[in-house]
TrEMBL record:
HAMAP family per the UniProt record, alphabetical: TruA
Protein name: tRNA pseudouridine synthase
Organism: Digitaria exilis
Entry annotated with the keyword tRNA processing: yes
Entry GO MF terms: RNA binding; tRNA pseudouridine(38-40) synthase activity
Family statement drawn from the similarity comment of this UniProt entry: Belongs to the tRNA pseudouridine synthase TruA family.
Length: 332
């Protein structure tokens, strides 16, 4: 069994050494500046790492520069790698932490999925689960850890993904939704938005809805959208889209067009026209990309067979439940 190292559960900052970079003291009050490393994501586990582990992760993306590793400012992947490095004493190349999707700056998640590898097995996952969450900032939480089959891959094994986009549709914004929903003071027409959303369903070339990527993101434009629902929840208008994959900023660009339809500035049948154009400039003429803070990666779905843990694996960890043996009112 891989033992847990002694851990400090205090203030936690992403370290360049954990993320694969180098540090030097800057002349701005002693803050660390980071040198960008050669590799931004390790995707090939070393042969001695025979054990693979799947995590389901939730995070408030407000303070982070998205999922994908970069040394400064820190990202979700950077914080997770740092926690795992402290616990396992493995470097990031051996951990081979890979996420299912690279959410952007300010985007949230409830069901992000990632995997990592280790050379030894764990008899119980509750300890490592508690240790990881103890090291992470409160905006990031690992909801679940389980053993994974060797052929499981968080990104390439994906069957579909579900995203939500939340719109607060009242004249005055609720401050408690300010970081988690886009505010539209215009009274939107949900019926028109539903009609427009239906045009996205099916297999299409979504070139018109993809921003230019600055990394090696998938640029194959043919994607399948299986459903696109528009649901009224009081002041919240929730857009839920499920598809086999999405291009860079595709969801936010689709939402932007639906917002214009909801404002009745454009008709619902504008959607097939923009799709057929296969030109991002055509969408830019009528709609700007929706802001990131209303977007959530809700779940990443896989075939049931590939999610079955290997024989003899420890039980899935959903976190410990703590109980008091008797009431102690120490403040009296």
């Amino acid at each position: 069994m891989l033992g847990l190292a002694s851990l400090r559960f205090g203030a936690f900052h992403c370290r360049a050494s954990a993320c694969g970079g180098n540090t030097s003291l800057a002349g701005d009050g002693g803050r660390l500046s980071f040198i960008v490393p050669e590799v931004d994501e390790v995707d090939a586990a070393p042969p001695e790492n025979k054990h693979k582990w799947r995590m389901v992760i939730a995070y408030d993306g407000t303070k982070f520069k998205g999922w994908q590793y970069q040394p400064s400012p820190p990202t979700i992947q950077c914080f997770l790698e740092d926690a795992l490095i402290r616990i396992t004493k493995l470097d990031r190349k051996k951990l081979c932490l890979v996420g299912a999707g690279r959410t952007d700056t300010g985007v949230h998640a409830w069901g992000q999925v990632a995997h990592f590898t280790t050379p030894s097995a764990y008899d119980c996952l509750d300890d490592i689960h508690s240790a990881i969450n103890g090291l992470l900032p409160p905006e990031i939480r690992v909801r679940e850890i389980s053993a994974a089959r060797p052929e499981f891959h968080a990104r390439t094994s994906t069957k579909s993904k579900i995203y939500h986009y939340k719109i607060y549709n009242e004249a005055i914004m609720d401050p408690f939704h300010n970081r988690y929903a886009y505010h539209s003071a215009y009274k939107l027409n949900p019926r028109a938005m539903r009609q427009a959303a239906k045009h996205f369903v099916g297999i299409h070339d979504f070139t018109s809805f993809a921003n230019a990527a600055h990394n090696d993101r998938d640029r194959r434009p043919i994607k399948k959208i299986t459903r696109f629902d528009v649901t009224e929840m009081g002041a919240i208008l929730q857009l839920e889209v499920e598809g086999t994959g999405f291009l860079y900023r595709q969801v936010r660009n689709m939402v932007a067009l639906l917002l214009q339809v909801g404002k009745e500035a454009l008709p619902p049948d504008i959607v097939p026209v923009i799709i057929a154009a296969r030109d991002r400039k055509e969408l830019a003429k009528v709609a700007l990309s929706a802001p990131p803070h209303g977007l959530y990666l809700m779940s990443v779905n896989y075939d049931e067979e590939i999610l079955k843990p290997p024989e003899g694996s420890p039980p899935i960890s959903f976190g410990r439940t703590h109980q008091l043996s008797k009431c102690k009112l120490t403040f009296y």
